[in-house]
Amino acid sequence: MMAFIFQLIGAYLVSIVCAIFLEAPKNLMFKVPIVVVGGWFVYLILLNGLGINIIVATYLASLVIAWLSHKMARRYHKPVTLFFLPGFFTLVPGGGMYRTALAFIQGETTSGFQELGTTMFTALAIALAVYTIDSAVNIKYNQQRPKFIRKNRMIPLRKYTKNKSR
């Protein structure tokens, strides 16, 4: 339980440092970590609590981060990337890339390819989650009516009911 709390605190601190690095506005400096801690919390629960595969846990946590990022960006009228980038710092498989390179340098090609597959699928899960949420938000907020449908207007009937007895 203490390790779980320490990891959440670590995610919070990482997100504050990333927000400083991205030059986030001061009024959002302590609101950006909400996205990061929410995604990391879901990741830890899925990975450690429920024993789900690392790739599926990364995908579901990335869905949460992307969704929270869009919500926060709309609420505070800031770019989504201000919330995306710190959110994904904790999920990016940098350690997996290191272990892949180490395995290939040491000549262990089997474990290197195995680690490479896991790392690539983890990165793909993050990209797929971002695409999924961006598409859903685009459909929800940017869907436009066809040009021939008038919004909140009735078609005047006199145009079509003119006296044709002329």
From TrEMBL:
GO term, biological process aspect, one: succinate transport
GO cellular component terms listed in the entry, alphabetical order: plasma membrane
Protein name: Uncharacterized membrane protein YjjB, DUF3815 family
Organism, scientific name: Aerococcus suis
Claim: Lipoprotein is one of the keywords in the record: no
All residue ranges annotated as the Threonine/Serine exporter ThrE domain in the record: 7-134
Highest rank taxon of the organism: Bacteria
Annotated compartments: Cell membrane
Transmembrane regions listed in the UniProt entry: 43-68, 80-98, 118-141
Membrane association type: Multi-pass membrane protein
Pfam families the record matches: ThrE_2 (PF12821)
UniProt family annotation: Belongs to the ThrE exporter (TC 2.A.79) family.
Cross-referenced InterPro entries: ThrE_2, ThrE_Dicarb/AminoAcid_Exp
Keywords, ordered alphabetically: Cell inner membrane, Cell membrane, Membrane, Transmembrane, Transmembrane helix
The keyword Coiled coil is assigned to this record: no
